[in-house]
Amino acid sequence: MSKNNRCSIMFVATAVLAVSAARGQKETLLIGPGDLLHVQVFDTPELEEHALVADAGELPLIVGGSVKVAGLTPKEAGDAVEEALSRGHFLLHPRVLVTFDTMETQNVSVLGEVRLPGAYPIQTSRSVLDVLALAGGITDLADRKVLIERHGTSEKVPYLLSNVPDLAMSTSVTMNPGDTLLVPKAGIVYVLGSVGHPGGYTMTNNEAELSVLELIARAGGTTTAAIPARARLLRKSDGGYVTTPLPLSDMQKGKLSDLPLKANDIIYVPFSYLRNFVVQGSGIVASAAAAAVYKF
Predict the structure, then answer these.
(1) Which of 55, 147, 148, 256 could staple 250 via S-S, CB 3.0–4.6 A?
(2) pLDDT exceeds 50 at position 17
């Protein structure tokens, strides 16, 4: 066997091993418009190219037309190019390796209730906890139910940033360059009137929920001058508020079940019959708007 033939065989073998190794790795980075890709068709060097992914998400090939690659991993893009070359009868058994030359989108965007919202450069996949750390962590008003939007596919991935450290770390999901993380503001509920600490309270537990009795407990309980049997619940409806009686006294005594609250609900606990007589719903809503918001 000639030296040239041996070199040719070694090149093909090395190329095949490179494809196999690349495809054996678990890839998480997804291709998007604007990415510059390196396409290698082994044993057919004339089809090698460096091509830009178009805005429509397609990769133009030297032969075989254009292939949709946005939202695919490089391995999946290589499979798609192989299929296009086989389908067009350009090659019988093509072996294709697609890799990134440059990625147009190398930032993750972090929006909402984080201390330092903005775009942060990452070169590879990072956990959502790492990305939140880049943004300085969440604020005291953050909802723990956050949302990730995938680059290229716009897939929405929910994630619960649990208060339990082990659970938060064991369930953490990865973010890829180009992904967007949105941390919404937690809902706020209000308790006014004859309670220890009237004001607004954020719904920042894992369930993003509070019940009537939980809210009263956070507010330091009712005072000795309170009339819990005359408490009222104000709930938003069609742009206004609907006022309904709230049997708080029976709830505190265990005669009635606790009730879940919705964001922007207002509980009013009267001080006395005389003072409560002049307090109307509009006055309660105005007081809630000016109330201090507590983060615990």
Answers:
(1) 256
(2) no
d(C-alpha 269, C-alpha 94), whole Å: 76
Helices and strands: H and E segment counts in the chain: 8, 18
Q: Hunting for tokens 């990452």 — which residue is that? A: 122
CATH number, domain of 53, equals 3.30.1950.10
What is the three-state SS of 144-161? Answer: CEEEEECCCCCCEEEEEC
Q: Are strands 126-127 and 232-237 parallel, antiparallel or unpaired?
A: unpaired
CA atoms within 13 A on the CB side of 220: 13
Q: Verify that 177 and 192 share a domain, yes or no.
A: no
Please tell me whether the overall predicted TM-score, pTM, comes out greater than 0.70 for this model.
no
Q: Secondary structure of the chain: what % helix, strand, coil (to 5)?
A: 25, 30, 45
CB atoms within 10 A of CB 228: 21
Range of the domain at 157: 107-183
Tokens coding 143: 């909802």
Q: Give the H/E segment covering residue 29.
A: none
Grouping H, G, I as helix, E, B as strand and the rest as coil, residue 7 is helix
Q: Which amino acid is at 133?
A: A
Tokens of residue 10, six digits: 């070694």
| Number of folded domains that form the chain | 3
- Looking at the fold, whether 202 and 288 belong to one and the same domain comes out as yes
